[in-house]
Inverse folding.
């Protein structure tokens, strides 16, 4: 069973436009949720994480994500996209219910058009 | 501070050859992870170590794959014999805490092509 779903393989947005990348997880009462970014030819870098508390978390590079337990979602948002944001974005879930391992979604490739 | 260092960055080899990928984790990190990334299967956890001890190798695809961590500053992932379907990018990552609860720091990856 797929644990993490990122329904959009590719997304194209115009520079300056807002962005929302979707992520849903399959199960877990207390999931730990992460968003990573991968630039071409590079490793992954953590953008933000959610463990508990405030369901709206702020990350680096102006990104934020909101945890919605009722929807099993952890969508990533940015109000104004820059050309340098073009990359692949991977959602991941971990925690005790995932065997203390990090399970990644398939990723969403973001293209930014000027 | 140096991040996670992997070598080689690129490896092209022929089917049947032995491949060894190397990783130096961030000093002080107790956890080390090996991931494989392909277009078809995305990012998959192969094995992870805690304090140099393999904890979970359930993601290792076959006996052709083996991983070692002889000390806190070095790990290897070996494929013998290699096959074309092993072509992928292999990432090493380290963490201060476990994967499920902590931030993973990734190396830049080793891109393997098996002809």
């Amino acid at each position: 069973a797929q644990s993490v779903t990122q329904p959009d393989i590719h997304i194209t947005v115009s520079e300056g436009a807002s962005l929302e990348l979707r992520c849903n997880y399959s199960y877990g009462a207390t999931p730990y949720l992460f968003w990573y970014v991968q630039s071409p030819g590079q490793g992954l870098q953590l953008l933000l994480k959610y463990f508990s508390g405030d369901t709206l978390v702020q990350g680096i590079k102006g990104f934020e994500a909101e945890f919605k337990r009722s929807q099993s979602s952890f969508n990533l948002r940015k109000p104004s996209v820059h050309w340098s944001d073009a990359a692949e974005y991977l959602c991941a879930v971990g925690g005790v219910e995932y065997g203390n391992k990090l399970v990644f979604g398939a990723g969403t490739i973001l293209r930014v058009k000027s | 501070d140096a991040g996670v260092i992997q070598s080689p960055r690129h490896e092209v080899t022929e089917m049947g050859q032995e491949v060894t990928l190397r990783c130096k984790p961030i000093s002080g990190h107790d956890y080390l992870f090996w991931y494989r990334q392909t277009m078809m299967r995305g990012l998959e956890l192969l094995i992870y170590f805690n304090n140099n001890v393999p904890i979970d190798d359930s993601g290792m695809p076959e006996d052709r794959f083996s991983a070692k961590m002889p000390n806190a500053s070095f790990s290897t992932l070996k494929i013998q014999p290699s096959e074309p379907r092993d072509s992928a990018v292999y990432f090493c990552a380290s963490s201060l805490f476990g994967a499920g609860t902590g931030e993973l720091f990734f190396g830049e990856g080793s891109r393997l092509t098996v002809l």
